[in-house]
Amino acid sequence: MTADKALPELDPVIHAQARLRVVASLNVLGDGDEMAFNSMKELLGMTAGNLSVHLTKLEEAGYVRINKTHKGRTPVTYVALTKRGRLAFEDYTKAIRALLDNAGGM
Description:
Blueprint: H1 12-15, H2 17-27, E1 35-36, H3 37-44, H4 48-60, E2 64-71, E3 74-81, H5 83-103
Antiparallel strand pairs: 1-3, 2-3
């Protein structure tokens, strides 16, 4: 590989396996759509504590928006991918593709 064709950087916030799964699952939703925390927990097979830790990291990076509300008397937490998160995921997938495309030439 030549020096002018450096390997792409992978976003460390998204690159952690659990956070990548969270962002990928939210990315399939339409703009402005959100997923209930419990649905996401079940979909990803994660514990509430583990999911919460990863969502906090993603929220701190501005990649997800967390909306805590009530459905009747029951508290409900919804999670949505922000525009910034959607762009970061797009950049991440481009970087992964570039990395894989270049893997054969090393």
